[in-house]
Specification:
Oligomer: single chain
Strand content: 35-45%
Largest sheet: 4 strands, antiparallel
Strand order of the largest sheet: 4-5-6-7
Radius of gyration: 16 Å
Order of helices and strands: HEEEEEEEHH
Helix content: 25-40%
Number of strands: 7
Number of domains: 1
């Protein structure tokens, strides 16, 4: 559960803050179906507190949500076209393109144009993931 979800969280953190370091990761089992992972993320602009609530769901695609500075959205996925929709607390909705398709297209365009991959970003992403997973003792 955590290993599948954390790359999404870390991608969002990297986009918001730039490269940084994970510190103090810990996991708390709130119930047999609910794990909370908390860690700090030290970056050039300060220190971000990250909380990840993972709740087991038998349904696929799983529901999701995100909150930043007290503002939150719920994510739903409409099948079969995998249309992602974010809904805020007031009911306002916005539909997004599937981010995986968008990233794959961008990656292929970068390869075709011989644009180099950000080696630093790739290494930092894997190190951050490893730091969290190794220290929460899954």
């Amino acid at each position: 559960m955590a290993i599948d979800s954390l790359p999404h969280v870390l991608s969002m953190v990297h986009c918001l803050t730039g490269l940084g370091e994970v510190h103090g990761p810990r996991a708390v089992m709130k119930s047999p179906e609910h794990m909370q992972i908390v860690f700090g993320y030290r970056h050039g602009g300060g220190d971000l507190k990250v909380e990840v609530d993972l709740i087991r769901s038998p349904n696929s695609p799983r529901p999701g949500g995100y909150a930043i500075n007290g503002r939150s959205v719920k994510r739903s996925v409409i099948l079969p076209e995998y249309q992602i929709v974010f809904t805020d607390d007031s009911g306002h909705q916005i539909a997004l393109e599937d981010p995986l398709k968008k990233r794959v297209r961008q990656y292929l365009a970068d390869v075709e144009s011989k644009k180099s991959t950000s080696r630093e970003q790739l290494i930092a992403s894997m190190k951050n993931l490893m730091d969290v997973v190794e220290n929460i003792h899954l």
